[in-house]
Design a protein that fits this description.
Layout (H helix, E strand, L loop, with lengths): L4 E3 L5 E4 L5 E3 L2 H7 L9 E4 L4 E8 L16 H20 L6 E8 L5 H12 L17 E5 L1 H6 L8 E3 L3
Parallel strand pairs: 5-6, 6-7
Antiparallel strand pairs: 1-2, 2-8, 3-4, 4-5
Helix pairs in contact: 2-3
Length: about 170
């Protein structure tokens, strides 16, 4: 099932989605090949119960360009991460994927800690449709989380798709 192991853009880490019912890392390629220029998440994985929209940003990898300049708490970056959720919904709709969706932002950057990630999660969550779907029978987002690679790999649910360093 090597076709369900996806490398991130820096080619330092890979995510293994071989246990997924369905998965892809081709949302960007499909959008741009069709002339549609929407933002998108890096990976999508589906289980029997959920669709996971997974965004990955790592400014702490070796050879990262200007790692200290990445400020995920900036309003522009917060908006960008929220937009990736909304724009990825188009892909799910045209692909016939209609399960409860969980959105996870895996982020690594210098000096990031648990508190930083919780504050970032809270900022981004205000831009997601949680309030819009209150008292509605249809939910377009089940949950949102911001985690480190380590937290991802230790999480009871997310670890189903391990994120590991690529062997050099």
């Amino acid at each position: 099932m090597a076709d369900k192991v996806y490398m991130e853009e820096n080619e330092v880490y890979q995510i293994d989605c071989s246990t997924a019912v369905w998965s892809t890392n081709q949302v960007y390629a499909q959008y741009h090949a069709s002339g549609v220029f929407l933002s998108d998440v890096d990976f999508v994985a589906s289980t029997e119960d959920y669709i996971y929209l997974i965004e990955y940003k790592n400014a702490a990898v070796p050879n990262a360009i200007y790692p200290n300049k990445y400020q995920p708490q900036d309003a522009q970056n917060v908006d960008k991460i929220a937009r990736k959720f909304y724009d990825s919904l188009h892909f799910l709709a045209i692909s016939g994927k209609d399960k409860p969706t969980k959105y996870i932002f895996i982020v690594e950057y210098p000096s990031a800690g648990v508190t930083d990630r919780k504050m970032l999660r809270n900022k981004i969550a205000t831009k997601l449709p949680f309030k819009l779907q209150e008292n509605k029978s249809k939910k377009i987002i089940k949950s949102f989380d911001v985690v480190s690679i380590s937290e991802w790999n230790l999480h009871a649910e997310y670890s189903r798709f391990p994120l590991t360093m690529v062997q050099q």
